[in-house]
Amino acid sequence: MSLRLRMISLLTMAALPTACSLVPAYQAPTPATPQHWQAALPHAGNTADLVHWWSQFDDATLTDLLQAAEHDHPSLEKAAAAIREARAAITSSKAAGLPALTGNASDIRNSSNSLQHTPAATTRSAALDASWEIDIFGAVRYATESAQAKAEAREGDWHNARVSLAAEVATDYVSYRACQQQVAAYQAELVSQQATVRLTETLTNAGFNAPADANLARATLASTSATLTAQQESCDLTVKSLVALTGLDETALRAKLNSGKADIPAPAGFAVTDLPAAQISQRPDVSIAERTLAAAYADIGSAEADRYPRLSLLGTITATATGGASATTWSFGPSLTAPLFDAGKRRANAEAARARYDQALATYKQTVRSAVEETEQALVRLESASQREQDARTAAANYRAYLTASEQLWKSGGMNLLDLETARRSAISADLNVITLKRDQVNDWIALYKAFGGDWQAVPAPTTTGTTSSSKEAKQQ
């Protein structure tokens, strides 16, 4: 075998995936999560109930709003575009380890203006240049691993955007329904107070009550009317927020809201008793942090490989024709590029890559801690709201009974107007507290869903090259 053939054989063997590894294989860290949740887990069941969780609300309007938001929202479109960019980077990284072929051609007409006339001539040429970097030290492989991990992190961004968007839409929808119930409560009190004002004015004009009683009745009525206006403003602001989240026309959105259930939606149950604490790793932000960590680790390998020589195979074939003469030349052989002196630049780059990895590791640990904290807090708030709701309902029922008795007593002259209005304020405050607690309890369910990361792994990230068509077709989880 000739020396050239032996060299080609050796270089081809070097190109096989047996290149030496400059850093150990990446090992994903184990999330530092507790063995069990410290806060109480509500209800009973298993993790399968996390799947299709939004369907447990049994609210067609909420489902429509969730689908509208996912169908067309800038945050999802931005995340999907970032995925396409990251996947293109993977292709680019892989291409660096494959043979490249470049062709060029020219057709040049030339002549000389010397004393001895030379006829014009045409020179035609064509050439093919080939190159192939032999990935001996894994520079291409590490770059590809980094690009792959970054792409997976961008997919996590898309899933995170979906979970956050769904939670935000549901929270605003629940707040709107609660707001409408509060408006209804104030309207009912306004009707009652209007009747009180009419009766008080009649008694005052007849001389049975002091003028101050009429002033107090009118002042209370005006105060309730102002509160009602402020409450209606809050509802309108929530509608504006839903318009921005869903992209729906406000007129169409209001019609949809008015045709739906007026009650505050609530899930039939969110069974998480059997969910292990380590399941926190399904959260998109935790997954993103881990994939970012993997990319930083691969970057260490790339930086280390840059400190070693690069070996490439180069080849060229050129054909030239001028007039009736033609010639063909070719060349082929290895090319070795080795860093001899760079004043420590490549070593510093490798050290910087390690420092970035340490930063990514710290970020990952902090993300896991924050995820555990958020989940524990959501569990505590949910348990607290559940316990307080029953007491609040008992208080509201008794305050309402006391108000009814007080109204009868006031009409018979056994109670002054100030005491009656005090009883009225206590009753409406108790009613509003029940509505608020019910709203908060449902929002705590939503926060817990978000804290567990939803079921984001069940839906693939968009794969099309256009807009977020995959996200538009995906159903809410």
Written description of the protein model:
A 4-stranded antiparallel sheet has the order 1-2-3-4. Strand 1 and strand 2 form a beta hairpin. By secondary structure, the chain is of the alpha+beta class. It has helices at residues 3-15, 60-71, 74-95, 139-205, 211-246, 250-259, 284-305, 345-411, 417-451, 469-473, and strands at 100-112, 118-134, 310-322, 325-337.
List the helices and strands and how they pair.
Blueprint (H helix, E strand, L loop, with lengths): L2 H13 L44 H12 L2 H22 L4 E13 L5 E17 L4 H67 L5 H36 L3 H10 L24 H22 L4 E13 L2 E13 L7 H67 L5 H35 L17 H5 L4
Antiparallel strand pairs: 1-2, 2-3, 3-4
Helix pairs in contact: 2-4, 3-4, 4-5, 4-7, 4-9, 7-8, 8-9
Number of helices: 10
Q: CATH topology, which one?
A: Outer membrane efflux proteins (OEP)
The name of the CATH superfamily reads Outer membrane efflux proteins (OEP)
Integer tally of domains:
1
The chain-level structural class is: alpha+beta
Low-confidence stretches: 7-19, 41-49, 465-477
CATH architectural grouping: Up-down Bundle
SSE order, one letter for each helix or strand:
HHHEEHHHHEEHHH
- Average pLDDT figure: 80
The CATH class, by name, is Mainly Alpha
Across the major sheet, the strand order is 1-2-3-4
User: What gyration radius follows from the Cα positions, in whole Å?
Assistant: 36 Å
**Cα end-to-end separation:** 64 Å
Globally, the shape reads elongated
Percent in helix = 55-70%
Looking at how many chains there are and whether they match, the oligomeric state comes to single chain
Strand content: 5-15%
Number of strands: 4
For the largest beta-sheet, the strand count, sense and barrel status come to:
4 strands, antiparallel
